Amino acid sequence: MRQYFALSIIALILIFSSCRTDFDTVASSGDLKFSKDTVYLDTVFKNIGSSTYQLKVYNRSKNDISIPTVQLKKGLNSKYRMTVDGMSGNEGKIFNDVTLLAKDSLYIFIETTADITDANPDDFLYTDEIQFDSGANLQEVALVTLIQDAVFLYPNQNPDGTKEKIEIDGKEVDGFYLSENDPTNGNELLFTNEKPYVIYGYAGVPENKTVTFEAGARVHFHANSGLYIGNKASLEINGTASTTDKLENEVIFEGDRLESLYSDIPGQWNSVIFEKGSTNHSINHLTLKNAVTGLEFRSPLNTIEIKNTQVYNCVEYGILAQNAQINAENIVINYAGMASLSCVYGGSYSFVHSTFNNNWSGGSQLAVNLSNSLAGATPETNPLTQATFNNCIIYGSATNEFNLDKNASAPFVYQLNNCLLKFGSTSNSDYQFKTDTEHYNNIILNENPKFYNVSQNKLNIDNTSSAFAKGNQAYIIPTDILGITRTSPPDLGAYQSQDFPK
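Predicted structure:
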């Protein structure tokens, strides 16, 4: 009997101890602590959801507490939504009786999707507060988001629910052709600097049409999107030199996530494709970043002029040229999973005062690759009639940053003059940089150019660099990529040397 009674008492204790109810907690007294007093959700485009942001709430007291309400001040009308310790509450807006144990903390995760009309018309900020409790115990944490207006370009939806398609490489992909007389956006072939543009799918340029980008234009590509310049179509980028770090006159191509977390993440969108038979392209002051392949040239009809252009953080190639004709000056490419610059299947190329660097982590990445063949092509080889690099830097984190892929069945003509080059020792006759004067003149081998900050894509140099004043005056481009006048003898690469910021 005593044993039965003892077991019953133990069972009752276990039952009551396992069922925590409100009498186990005390009411919140307004003494919560927070990881921040304002949560800034980075800039988003109208009606595009933000990333998820975090707020941590602490109970420093010795008591388990119950917070009567955790809610957004604008209630169910708020454009913010949140989860509180994994709970979704009332539409992510209102939570009741939230328990927080003594000396413990909880996480609140916040997101938003808002329209430009929801924001303050004076500063385009959308704001709200998370309120903890009420009355004398009320505590608040502010929420702030900048909403940016934009022109959205995307495939139409067909009556059967499928999306509009265009053909690339013999396959149909989500896409559309830009129009001169779109009823919503007007002339879609002229990208101005009045508002940023957001592109979904591939935006195609129609045959015999030119797409033009004015100085200061901003183009943001959604995942799996890009720009397609088809047969007999043309591209013209008319950026100019900027005077501030905002690159106010540069044309910028990047992904559509504006949060700082995404500023340098590769592969957020696909590529700018110049199809075989496209024509009359010119590019000046373009900054392109975070693509799969930046600029992809497929045998355009005539010479492409590329000036003062930067390409960063591409999963495969910064520039991939296939049997193209390119004259380029003041080019900077950094971080590419395969090669910063790859010129394959022959063609004709001239690069002056350009910086090709590759600090991609892992793999067999290169700064520069040259080839006169292409597997699967008919014929498999094509003449490389010219590939000259004058006053350039070819560098990176790999042992060899320069590769020649020769096929004896076609011509392979190349020359490097006054270049700083990284390449390990070899007995291969193609890489005799000191003795082969037909292909190499005044090569600075394996000396560090001392870039300002490679990880931030700042490949500027100062007067301590091995590239300082090592250029040939015969190849000089009078101003550098920033519009700064070059001295004589010129520095190698795209930047005129300057003292680094302190």
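Summary: Residues 2-18 form the longest helix (17 residues).
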